[in-house]
Specification:
This protein is mainly alpha-helical and 431 residues long. Helices cover 70% and strands 0% of the residues.
Protein backbone atom coordinates (compact mmCIF):
# COMPACT_ATOMS: atom_id res chain seq x y z
CA UNK A 1 0.00 0.00 0.00
CA UNK A 2 1.51 3.29 -1.08
CA UNK A 3 2.88 5.26 1.84
CA UNK A 4 2.82 2.32 4.20
CA UNK A 5 5.60 0.05 2.99
CA UNK A 6 7.71 -1.20 5.90
CA UNK A 7 9.90 -4.16 6.76
CA UNK A 8 7.06 -6.57 7.49
CA UNK A 9 8.28 -10.02 6.62
CA UNK A 10 11.69 -10.44 8.19
CA UNK A 11 10.78 -9.46 11.72
CA UNK A 12 14.49 -8.98 12.35
CA UNK A 13 15.89 -6.64 14.98
CA UNK A 14 17.81 -4.31 12.70
CA UNK A 15 20.57 -2.74 14.74
CA UNK A 16 20.93 0.95 13.98
CA UNK A 17 24.16 2.11 12.43
CA UNK A 18 26.37 4.73 13.99
CA UNK A 19 24.48 7.56 12.26
CA UNK A 20 21.02 6.01 12.43
CA UNK A 21 18.53 6.79 15.20
CA UNK A 22 17.76 3.84 17.46
CA UNK A 23 14.63 1.86 16.66
CA UNK A 24 12.28 -0.33 18.64
CA UNK A 25 13.55 -3.83 19.33
CA UNK A 26 11.75 -6.89 17.96
CA UNK A 27 11.78 -9.25 20.94
CA UNK A 28 8.15 -10.33 21.41
CA UNK A 29 7.15 -13.81 20.25
CA UNK A 30 3.75 -15.46 20.08
CA UNK A 31 3.49 -16.65 23.75
CA UNK A 32 4.33 -13.20 25.16
CA UNK A 33 2.00 -11.49 22.69
CA UNK A 34 -0.88 -13.76 23.72
CA UNK A 35 -0.16 -13.09 27.40
CA UNK A 36 -0.11 -9.36 26.67
CA UNK A 37 -3.43 -9.65 24.85
CA UNK A 38 -4.98 -11.66 27.68
CA UNK A 39 -3.69 -9.20 30.26
CA UNK A 40 -5.00 -6.09 28.54
CA UNK A 41 -8.34 -7.76 27.70
CA UNK A 42 -9.17 -9.54 30.95
CA UNK A 43 -7.80 -6.75 33.11
CA UNK A 44 -9.86 -6.31 36.23
CA UNK A 45 -13.19 -6.00 34.40
CA UNK A 46 -14.53 -9.51 34.89
CA UNK A 47 -14.02 -9.16 38.64
CA UNK A 48 -16.85 -6.62 38.76
CA UNK A 49 -18.74 -6.93 35.46
CA UNK A 50 -20.19 -10.32 36.27
CA UNK A 51 -22.54 -8.70 38.79
CA UNK A 52 -23.68 -6.04 36.31
CA UNK A 53 -24.41 -8.60 33.59
CA UNK A 54 -26.34 -10.76 36.04
CA UNK A 55 -28.42 -7.74 37.02
CA UNK A 56 -29.59 -7.36 33.41
CA UNK A 57 -29.62 -10.90 32.05
CA UNK A 58 -30.25 -12.90 35.21
CA UNK A 59 -29.35 -16.56 34.88
CA UNK A 60 -28.66 -16.00 31.19
CA UNK A 61 -25.58 -13.83 31.90
CA UNK A 62 -23.18 -16.40 30.35
CA UNK A 63 -25.00 -16.05 27.03
CA UNK A 64 -24.39 -12.30 27.13
CA UNK A 65 -20.65 -12.94 27.05
CA UNK A 66 -21.08 -15.25 24.04
CA UNK A 67 -23.09 -12.59 22.19
CA UNK A 68 -20.49 -9.92 22.97
CA UNK A 69 -17.71 -12.22 21.77
CA UNK A 70 -19.56 -12.94 18.51
CA UNK A 71 -19.98 -9.22 17.85
CA UNK A 72 -16.32 -8.59 18.66
CA UNK A 73 -15.18 -11.34 16.28
CA UNK A 74 -15.79 -9.23 13.15
CA UNK A 75 -13.68 -6.34 14.42
CA UNK A 76 -10.98 -8.77 15.54
CA UNK A 77 -10.75 -10.10 11.98
CA UNK A 78 -10.44 -6.54 10.63
CA UNK A 79 -7.64 -5.75 13.09
CA UNK A 80 -5.87 -8.99 12.16
CA UNK A 81 -5.83 -8.13 8.45
CA UNK A 82 -4.88 -4.49 8.97
CA UNK A 83 -1.96 -5.47 11.21
CA UNK A 84 -0.52 -7.34 8.23
CA UNK A 85 -1.31 -4.68 5.65
CA UNK A 86 0.07 -1.81 7.76
CA UNK A 87 2.40 -3.19 10.48
CA UNK A 88 3.13 0.04 12.32
CA UNK A 89 2.76 1.36 15.86
CA UNK A 90 -0.25 3.61 16.50
CA UNK A 91 -2.13 0.97 14.54
CA UNK A 92 -5.66 2.31 14.93
CA UNK A 93 -4.69 5.83 13.88
CA UNK A 94 -2.57 4.63 10.96
CA UNK A 95 -5.37 2.33 9.77
CA UNK A 96 -7.82 5.25 9.77
CA UNK A 97 -5.24 7.35 7.88
CA UNK A 98 -4.89 4.63 5.25
CA UNK A 99 -8.64 4.32 4.88
CA UNK A 100 -9.72 7.97 4.95
CA UNK A 101 -6.58 10.05 4.37
CA UNK A 102 -7.71 12.82 6.70
CA UNK A 103 -4.94 14.08 8.97
CA UNK A 104 -7.29 15.49 11.59
CA UNK A 105 -9.18 12.19 11.79
CA UNK A 106 -5.91 10.27 12.13
CA UNK A 107 -4.72 12.46 15.01
CA UNK A 108 -8.16 12.40 16.66
CA UNK A 109 -8.21 8.60 16.50
CA UNK A 110 -4.73 8.28 17.97
CA UNK A 111 -5.35 10.79 20.74
CA UNK A 112 -8.68 9.09 21.46
CA UNK A 113 -6.86 5.80 22.00
CA UNK A 114 -4.28 7.52 24.23
CA UNK A 115 -7.03 9.26 26.22
CA UNK A 116 -8.91 6.00 26.74
CA UNK A 117 -5.72 4.31 27.94
CA UNK A 118 -4.86 7.14 30.34
CA UNK A 119 -8.36 7.21 31.82
CA UNK A 120 -8.39 3.40 32.05
CA UNK A 121 -4.99 3.34 33.78
CA UNK A 122 -6.04 6.10 36.19
CA UNK A 123 -9.30 4.31 37.01
CA UNK A 124 -7.48 1.01 37.49
CA UNK A 125 -4.90 2.79 39.65
CA UNK A 126 -7.61 4.02 41.98
CA UNK A 127 -9.08 0.52 42.12
CA UNK A 128 -5.66 -0.99 42.77
CA UNK A 129 -5.07 1.45 45.63
CA UNK A 130 -8.42 0.47 47.10
CA UNK A 131 -7.60 -3.24 46.95
CA UNK A 132 -4.08 -2.70 48.30
CA UNK A 133 -5.28 -0.46 51.11
CA UNK A 134 -7.88 -3.04 52.07
CA UNK A 135 -5.28 -5.79 52.10
CA UNK A 136 -2.89 -3.71 54.23
CA UNK A 137 -5.62 -2.78 56.69
CA UNK A 138 -6.80 -6.39 56.93
CA UNK A 139 -3.27 -7.69 57.51
CA UNK A 140 -2.58 -5.02 60.14
CA UNK A 141 -5.96 -5.49 61.80
CA UNK A 142 -7.31 -2.12 60.78
CA UNK A 143 -4.78 -0.29 62.94
CA UNK A 144 -3.26 1.66 60.06
CA UNK A 145 -5.22 3.63 57.48
CA UNK A 146 -3.02 4.19 54.42
CA UNK A 147 -3.81 7.37 52.43
CA UNK A 148 -5.32 6.24 49.11
CA UNK A 149 -3.70 9.01 47.03
CA UNK A 150 -0.26 8.06 48.37
CA UNK A 151 -0.89 4.49 47.29
CA UNK A 152 -2.12 5.62 43.86
CA UNK A 153 0.97 7.76 43.33
CA UNK A 154 3.33 4.99 44.35
CA UNK A 155 1.59 2.38 42.21
CA UNK A 156 1.48 4.52 39.05
CA UNK A 157 5.11 5.63 39.40
CA UNK A 158 6.21 2.02 39.97
CA UNK A 159 4.32 0.80 36.89
CA UNK A 160 5.75 3.65 34.84
CA UNK A 161 9.23 2.60 35.95
CA UNK A 162 8.50 -0.97 34.84
CA UNK A 163 7.40 0.30 31.40
CA UNK A 164 10.66 2.29 31.15
CA UNK A 165 12.81 -0.79 31.76
CA UNK A 166 12.35 -2.12 28.24
CA UNK A 167 9.69 -3.90 26.23
CA UNK A 168 10.88 -7.44 27.03
CA UNK A 169 11.09 -6.72 30.75
CA UNK A 170 7.76 -4.90 30.96
CA UNK A 171 5.86 -7.48 28.89
CA UNK A 172 7.41 -10.32 30.91
CA UNK A 173 6.31 -8.54 34.08
CA UNK A 174 2.80 -8.06 32.68
CA UNK A 175 2.75 -11.67 31.48
CA UNK A 176 3.60 -12.99 34.94
CA UNK A 177 0.80 -10.93 36.50
CA UNK A 178 -1.57 -12.08 33.76
CA UNK A 179 -0.85 -15.71 34.62
CA UNK A 180 -1.58 -15.00 38.28
CA UNK A 181 -4.79 -13.22 37.31
CA UNK A 182 -5.91 -16.14 35.14
CA UNK A 183 -5.05 -18.62 37.89
CA UNK A 184 -7.52 -16.86 40.17
CA UNK A 185 -10.27 -17.27 37.57
CA UNK A 186 -9.32 -20.88 36.85
CA UNK A 187 -9.48 -21.67 40.58
CA UNK A 188 -13.06 -20.41 40.58
CA UNK A 189 -13.93 -22.51 37.53
CA UNK A 190 -12.23 -25.61 38.94
CA UNK A 191 -13.85 -25.21 42.34
CA UNK A 192 -17.22 -24.74 40.67
CA UNK A 193 -16.90 -28.00 38.75
CA UNK A 194 -15.59 -29.82 41.83
CA UNK A 195 -18.66 -28.71 43.75
CA UNK A 196 -21.04 -29.48 40.86
CA UNK A 197 -19.57 -32.14 38.54
CA UNK A 198 -22.67 -31.98 36.34
CA UNK A 199 -22.18 -28.32 35.50
CA UNK A 200 -21.64 -28.98 31.80
CA UNK A 201 -25.08 -30.54 31.54
CA UNK A 202 -26.55 -27.30 32.91
CA UNK A 203 -25.24 -25.17 30.03
CA UNK A 204 -28.59 -25.31 28.14
CA UNK A 205 -30.29 -23.74 31.17
CA UNK A 206 -28.27 -20.51 30.74
CA UNK A 207 -29.18 -20.11 27.05
CA UNK A 208 -32.67 -18.70 26.41
CA UNK A 209 -35.01 -20.56 24.08
CA UNK A 210 -35.48 -18.86 20.68
CA UNK A 211 -39.02 -17.78 21.55
CA UNK A 212 -38.18 -16.22 24.91
CA UNK A 213 -38.17 -12.58 23.79
CA UNK A 214 -37.97 -11.08 27.28
CA UNK A 215 -34.90 -13.18 28.11
CA UNK A 216 -33.16 -12.26 24.86
CA UNK A 217 -33.89 -8.57 25.49
CA UNK A 218 -32.08 -8.91 28.81
CA UNK A 219 -29.23 -10.82 27.16
CA UNK A 220 -28.68 -8.15 24.51
CA UNK A 221 -28.87 -5.41 27.13
CA UNK A 222 -26.27 -7.22 29.23
CA UNK A 223 -24.08 -7.83 26.18
CA UNK A 224 -23.55 -4.06 26.03
CA UNK A 225 -21.88 -4.39 29.43
CA UNK A 226 -20.12 -7.66 28.62
CA UNK A 227 -18.69 -6.13 25.44
CA UNK A 228 -16.44 -3.84 27.47
CA UNK A 229 -14.83 -6.88 29.10
CA UNK A 230 -13.53 -7.86 25.62
CA UNK A 231 -11.97 -4.53 24.70
CA UNK A 232 -8.19 -4.85 24.69
CA UNK A 233 -7.28 -7.47 22.10
CA UNK A 234 -6.96 -4.56 19.63
CA UNK A 235 -4.15 -3.05 21.70
CA UNK A 236 -1.80 -5.84 20.61
CA UNK A 237 -1.45 -4.23 17.17
CA UNK A 238 0.46 -1.35 18.76
CA UNK A 239 3.31 -3.77 19.55
CA UNK A 240 3.67 -4.84 15.92
CA UNK A 241 7.05 -3.10 15.49
CA UNK A 242 8.38 -4.99 18.52
CA UNK A 243 7.01 -8.40 17.45
CA UNK A 244 8.98 -11.04 15.60
CA UNK A 245 7.37 -12.20 12.32
CA UNK A 246 4.30 -10.00 12.92
CA UNK A 247 2.48 -10.94 9.70
CA UNK A 248 2.18 -14.53 10.95
CA UNK A 249 2.09 -13.97 14.70
CA UNK A 250 -0.33 -11.05 15.10
CA UNK A 251 -3.50 -12.69 13.66
CA UNK A 252 -2.84 -15.84 15.70
CA UNK A 253 -2.41 -13.79 18.88
CA UNK A 254 -5.59 -11.77 18.26
CA UNK A 255 -7.67 -14.88 17.50
CA UNK A 256 -6.25 -16.91 20.37
CA UNK A 257 -6.80 -14.07 22.82
CA UNK A 258 -10.45 -13.70 21.83
CA UNK A 259 -11.14 -17.45 22.04
CA UNK A 260 -9.43 -17.93 25.42
CA UNK A 261 -11.10 -14.86 26.94
CA UNK A 262 -14.50 -16.05 25.71
CA UNK A 263 -14.03 -19.51 27.24
CA UNK A 264 -12.85 -18.09 30.57
CA UNK A 265 -15.66 -15.53 30.78
CA UNK A 266 -18.35 -18.05 29.87
CA UNK A 267 -17.31 -20.62 32.45
CA UNK A 268 -16.69 -18.08 35.21
CA UNK A 269 -20.16 -16.64 34.65
CA UNK A 270 -21.67 -20.15 34.40
CA UNK A 271 -20.16 -21.13 37.75
CA UNK A 272 -21.28 -17.81 39.24
CA UNK A 273 -24.96 -17.93 38.23
CA UNK A 274 -25.33 -21.64 39.05
CA UNK A 275 -23.62 -21.27 42.44
CA UNK A 276 -24.79 -17.92 43.83
CA UNK A 277 -27.73 -17.09 41.63
CA UNK A 278 -28.27 -13.92 39.63
CA UNK A 279 -29.83 -11.88 42.44
CA UNK A 280 -27.00 -12.44 44.90
CA UNK A 281 -24.42 -11.71 42.20
CA UNK A 282 -26.14 -8.48 41.22
CA UNK A 283 -26.40 -7.32 44.83
CA UNK A 284 -22.72 -7.87 45.68
CA UNK A 285 -20.06 -5.17 45.29
CA UNK A 286 -17.38 -7.88 45.03
CA UNK A 287 -19.21 -10.78 43.36
CA UNK A 288 -16.16 -12.88 42.52
CA UNK A 289 -14.71 -12.44 45.99
CA UNK A 290 -17.99 -13.69 47.41
CA UNK A 291 -18.02 -16.59 44.95
CA UNK A 292 -14.39 -17.47 45.69
CA UNK A 293 -15.02 -17.60 49.42
CA UNK A 294 -18.14 -19.75 49.07
CA UNK A 295 -16.57 -22.23 46.66
CA UNK A 296 -13.18 -22.67 48.35
CA UNK A 297 -13.87 -21.82 51.99
CA UNK A 298 -10.78 -19.60 51.86
CA UNK A 299 -10.60 -15.97 52.86
CA UNK A 300 -11.69 -13.46 50.19
CA UNK A 301 -8.41 -11.72 51.06
CA UNK A 302 -6.67 -14.14 48.70
CA UNK A 303 -8.71 -12.94 45.75
CA UNK A 304 -8.15 -9.33 46.85
CA UNK A 305 -4.39 -9.92 46.67
CA UNK A 306 -4.80 -11.40 43.19
CA UNK A 307 -6.90 -8.35 42.26
CA UNK A 308 -4.03 -6.07 43.38
CA UNK A 309 -1.70 -7.76 40.90
CA UNK A 310 -4.40 -7.87 38.21
CA UNK A 311 -4.91 -4.12 38.47
CA UNK A 312 -1.16 -3.40 38.49
CA UNK A 313 -0.99 -5.45 35.30
CA UNK A 314 -3.71 -3.31 33.74
CA UNK A 315 -1.82 -0.10 34.53
CA UNK A 316 1.51 -1.12 33.03
CA UNK A 317 -0.14 -2.52 29.91
CA UNK A 318 -2.10 0.68 29.30
CA UNK A 319 1.06 2.77 29.73
CA UNK A 320 2.92 0.59 27.23
CA UNK A 321 0.11 0.76 24.70
CA UNK A 322 -0.51 4.51 24.91
CA UNK A 323 3.20 5.32 24.62
CA UNK A 324 3.44 3.26 21.41
CA UNK A 325 0.52 5.18 19.93
CA UNK A 326 2.28 8.49 20.65
CA UNK A 327 5.50 7.01 19.22
CA UNK A 328 3.75 5.93 16.02
CA UNK A 329 2.05 9.29 15.53
CA UNK A 330 5.34 11.09 16.12
CA UNK A 331 7.15 8.78 13.71
CA UNK A 332 4.62 9.53 10.95
CA UNK A 333 4.80 13.30 11.56
CA UNK A 334 1.32 13.67 13.04
CA UNK A 335 2.76 14.71 16.43
CA UNK A 336 6.11 16.27 17.45
CA UNK A 337 9.12 14.10 16.62
CA UNK A 338 10.12 14.05 20.31
CA UNK A 339 7.51 11.34 20.85
CA UNK A 340 9.28 9.12 18.29
CA UNK A 341 12.68 9.27 19.98
CA UNK A 342 13.83 5.87 21.16
CA UNK A 343 16.19 5.36 24.10
CA UNK A 344 19.48 4.02 22.66
CA UNK A 345 19.88 1.34 25.35
CA UNK A 346 16.35 0.45 26.48
CA UNK A 347 15.00 0.84 22.94
CA UNK A 348 11.66 2.17 24.16
CA UNK A 349 9.96 5.53 23.43
CA UNK A 350 11.05 7.15 26.69
CA UNK A 351 9.53 10.60 26.17
CA UNK A 352 6.16 9.13 25.27
CA UNK A 353 6.27 6.74 28.23
CA UNK A 354 7.13 9.52 30.68
CA UNK A 355 4.32 11.72 29.37
CA UNK A 356 1.73 8.94 29.58
CA UNK A 357 2.78 8.08 33.15
CA UNK A 358 2.51 11.75 34.16
CA UNK A 359 -0.94 12.04 32.58
CA UNK A 360 -2.15 8.95 34.44
CA UNK A 361 -1.01 10.53 37.71
CA UNK A 362 -2.78 13.82 36.94
CA UNK A 363 -6.04 12.09 36.00
CA UNK A 364 -5.92 9.80 39.03
CA UNK A 365 -5.36 12.74 41.40
CA UNK A 366 -7.48 15.50 39.95
CA UNK A 367 -10.17 14.37 37.53
CA UNK A 368 -13.52 12.72 38.35
CA UNK A 369 -13.30 9.58 36.26
CA UNK A 370 -16.73 7.94 36.26
CA UNK A 371 -18.23 9.92 33.37
CA UNK A 372 -14.90 10.03 31.53
CA UNK A 373 -14.64 6.24 31.69
CA UNK A 374 -18.11 5.89 30.19
CA UNK A 375 -17.31 8.41 27.45
CA UNK A 376 -14.02 6.72 26.55
CA UNK A 377 -15.78 3.36 26.21
CA UNK A 378 -18.14 4.96 23.72
CA UNK A 379 -15.16 6.58 21.98
CA UNK A 380 -13.53 3.17 21.56
CA UNK A 381 -16.69 1.87 19.91
CA UNK A 382 -16.67 4.85 17.54
CA UNK A 383 -13.04 4.06 16.69
CA UNK A 384 -14.01 0.44 16.01
CA UNK A 385 -16.57 1.74 13.51
CA UNK A 386 -13.84 3.80 11.80
CA UNK A 387 -11.37 0.88 11.74
CA UNK A 388 -13.87 -1.44 10.06
CA UNK A 389 -14.89 1.24 7.56
CA UNK A 390 -11.21 1.89 6.81
CA UNK A 391 -10.62 -1.75 5.86
CA UNK A 392 -13.81 -1.72 3.79
CA UNK A 393 -12.61 1.38 1.90
CA UNK A 394 -9.15 -0.12 1.39
CA UNK A 395 -10.66 -3.29 -0.04
CA UNK A 396 -13.23 -1.47 -2.19
CA UNK A 397 -10.60 0.66 -3.91
CA UNK A 398 -8.58 -2.47 -4.69
CA UNK A 399 -5.40 -1.91 -2.66
CA UNK A 400 -3.33 -5.07 -3.02
CA UNK A 401 -2.62 -6.97 0.18
CA UNK A 402 0.98 -8.10 0.75
CA UNK A 403 1.60 -11.78 0.07
CA UNK A 404 1.14 -14.18 2.95
CA UNK A 405 -0.93 -12.02 5.29
CA UNK A 406 -4.26 -12.91 6.88
CA UNK A 407 -7.20 -11.52 4.87
CA UNK A 408 -11.00 -11.57 5.23
CA UNK A 409 -13.92 -11.11 2.82
CA UNK A 410 -15.11 -7.54 2.29
CA UNK A 411 -18.35 -8.35 4.15
CA UNK A 412 -16.49 -8.84 7.46
CA UNK A 413 -15.55 -5.19 8.08
CA UNK A 414 -19.09 -4.20 7.04
CA UNK A 415 -20.54 -6.51 9.72
CA UNK A 416 -17.94 -5.21 12.18
CA UNK A 417 -18.86 -1.57 11.51
CA UNK A 418 -22.62 -2.23 11.79
CA UNK A 419 -22.22 -4.29 14.99
CA UNK A 420 -20.00 -1.65 16.62
CA UNK A 421 -22.40 1.11 15.58
CA UNK A 422 -25.35 -0.77 17.09
CA UNK A 423 -23.45 -1.31 20.34
CA UNK A 424 -22.49 2.36 20.38
CA UNK A 425 -26.13 3.36 19.94
CA UNK A 426 -27.16 0.88 22.62
CA UNK A 427 -24.55 2.18 25.06
CA UNK A 428 -25.88 5.72 24.59
CA UNK A 429 -29.53 4.67 24.98
CA UNK A 430 -29.12 2.20 27.83
CA UNK A 431 -26.05 3.77 29.47
Amino acid sequence: MEGYAVDRISGMDHTAGADDPPTLRRVIGLPLLILYGLGVTIGAGIYVLIGATAARAGVYAPTSFLVASFVMMFSACSFAELSGRIPQSAGEAIYVDAGFGRGWLTVATGLGIVASAVVAAATIGLGCAGYLGSVIETVLGGEVAVPRLALVGGIVVLMGAVALRGIRESVLFAGALTLLEIVGLLVIIGAGFARNPGLLSEIPSVIPSPGNGAAWFGVFGASLIAFFAFIGFDDTVNLVEETRDPARVMPIAIGTTLVLVTVIYFFVSLVAVRTLGAEELAASEAPLGLLFGQLTGLSPLILSIIAVFATMNGIVIQIIMASRVLYGLGKEGHLPAAFARVHPVRRIPRNATLLVTALVLVFAFLVPLERLAEMTSQMILAIFVLINLSLWRIKRRGDTAPDGIFTVPVAIPVFGAVASLLLLAGSVVFG
